[in-house]
């Protein structure tokens, strides 16, 4: 079946999540944010990823409200994700944080709610809160972010519901092989943040050669590599031409050998914090 911008993957609870979405990390509240989200929706994007710590949920909510009207779709056509921040990782605190995010977004429910980071001694209580939200029908799916295998194993010892998503830093220099294999074995969908390594891979000669072959940008090659590896991805951009470019990845396919060549660029190199050694 040919993929397109509305193509989805089924999470282990049956909820369908778009394979490609828009991330808004570090995009400040204001017209730039609102216009980017509205344009993405107008262009066919159906997944928007934000977080409490981004400080832009209100703007995302405004853009969603305006964007669905302008695109002639409904809220139910969108898949909206947010995340609970480290300072709110407790049972009652997480429930309150969810309600606060919902209020800022101006929504009745979220499609996906994630624990942002695996803060030791706190993420299990937060997970119980996510299970409550899910059981009560207040969120369609629940998951985690930046969890390594040992975090997942520890969480799943006591969890009544296993995570549906693990959103991690994932790009050709950090292929997360161990985490990816564990998630695949346990029906947890892997999702990539910083798929373009904050732009550091855009002049890589291996990827550039493929870009030349397919008459695509290096960013498009990397996003296509994500999708063909079965990884949901949420590249960030506020520029209209980049938003369109990042989604124009459904008219070509990388070969098995090309996928392998990109896989081999891995150096286990992070541009973000180490989930086993972070302090915020």
From TrEMBL:
The record marks 83 as: Lowers pKa of active site Tyr. Substrate binds at residue 116. Keywords: Oxidoreductase. InterPro entries: AKR, AKR5G, Aldo/ket_reductase_CS, NAD(P)_OxRdtase_dom_sf, NADP_OxRdtase_dom. Residues 31-266 form the NADP-dependent oxidoreductase domain. One of its GO terms (molecular function) is oxidoreductase activity. It comes from the Bacteria. It holds the Pfam family Aldo_ket_red. The active site is at residue 54. Signal peptide: none annotated. Belongs to the aldo/keto reductase family. This is Aldo/keto reductase. It comes from Perspicuibacillus lycopersici.
């Amino acid at each position: 079946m040919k993929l397109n911008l509305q193509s989805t993957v089924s999470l282990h609870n049956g909820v369908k999540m778009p394979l490609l979405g828009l991330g808004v990390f570090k995009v400040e509240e204001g017209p730039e944010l609102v216009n980017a989200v509205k344009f993405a929706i107008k262009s066919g994007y159906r997944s928007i990823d934000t977080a409490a710590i981004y400080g832009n949920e209100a703007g995302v909510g405004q853009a969603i409200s305006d964007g669905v009207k302008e695109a002639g779709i409904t809220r139910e056509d969108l898949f909206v994700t947010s995340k609970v921040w480290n300072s709110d990782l407790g049972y009652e605190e997480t429930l309150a944080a969810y309600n606060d995010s919902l209020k800022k977004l101006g929504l009745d429910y979220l499609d996906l709610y994630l624990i942002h980071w695996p803060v030791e001694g706190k993420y299990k209580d937060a997970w119980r809160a996510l299970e409550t939200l899910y059981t009560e029908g207040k969120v369609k799916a629940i998951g985690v972010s930046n969890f390594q295998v040992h975090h997942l194993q520890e969480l799943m010892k006591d969890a009544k519901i296993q995570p549906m998503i693990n959103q991690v830093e994932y790009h050709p220099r950090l292929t997360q092989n161990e985490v990816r294999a564990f998630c695949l074995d346990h029906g947890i969908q892997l999702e990539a943040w910083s798929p373009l390594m904050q732009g550091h891979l855009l002049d890589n000669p291996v990827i550039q050669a493929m870009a030349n072959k397919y008459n695509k940008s290096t960013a498009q090659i990397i996003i296509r590599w994500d999708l063909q590896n079965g990884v949901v991805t949420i590249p960030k951009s506020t520029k209209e031409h980049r938003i369109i470019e990042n989604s124009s990845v459904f008219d070509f396919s990388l070969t098995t050998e090309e996928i392998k060549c990109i896989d081999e660029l891995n150096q286990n190199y992070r541009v973000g914090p180490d989930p086993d050694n972070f302090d915020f």
